[in-house]
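Hi everyone, sorry if this is the wrong subforum. Our group has a chain we'd like a structural model of before ordering constructs, and none of us has done structure prediction before. Sequence below.
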Amino acid sequence: MNQPAERREQTKEQKKEKFFLFEKTAIIGFFLSLVGIYTAILPFELGISLIPADSLSFIAGIGMIFSIIWAADAVRKISKYGLGTGVPSVGMFGIGTAIIVALFAVFLNSVWNILIGAVLSLIIGWICGKLINNILKMNIPAMEKRIAEITAGCTIAVLASFVVVTGSADIDLIHSGYVFSGVIALGFIGISVAVFHAYNANLGPDEMPDRTKMLTILDSSMILMIFGITALFLRAADGLTIQTAIGPIVTIFISIVFILISYYKFWIYVKRDAWQIESTGLLPSEEDLN
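Answer:
Right subforum, don't worry. Here is the predicted structure as tokens:
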């Protein structure tokens, strides 16, 4: 029996989701974020004295933005199957798994710990996606792939935030400067919101990929700025010098530039897609409400 045209198109899309392991966003997000992190930590790991330790931490911050864009794009694609309130839930699931995998990876205390964490998160994410589809019977096409992408993107973002805040991937510095200082709570909430907020805010029949992606860049740039400010305060507590201040200051500057550009572009996309924009004026006073 011939399938309706709409059903045939849906079947083709499901096959595409199943067999295309990596799309452009995934390739860019995975590799560029890892390149950014390793560019920041390798001079420290290899003992290159020409480059001050942790002065390149801002490059890891740029990598963090790419990984968040990847994870947020995976949230967008899986949520189109009608997750509803599951949009924030899948983001929180991804960051929760990411925190565990990232801490385990840096505990290995090897130059390959970042790469090990990224690969391990893909494997664990795929297994979790398989369990969700088979046990909870959600039957969402490419669930395994998308959960793996969300988990991996969040994990790499967390690993990048380690480097941005502490200036290295050393387990002792991460424990003292990130975990026990309480910054880990900021990373948990900030990265998870950056991953799921963009699609949740643009949710609807007129959701546009470029507008959603631009809001993701804005969200991730804001959390990057907070990480940069946090890193600057931590350096100041240990005795701030010009060399130790380079990374956090450049991180803050770059994040502000990204915020301004992404906010401007997002507003342009909003005006492009909106049917009508009206100014609501000031919020009503207490007397007006009564």
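For your construct planning: Residues 26-273 form one domain. Residues 242-273 form the longest helix (32 residues).
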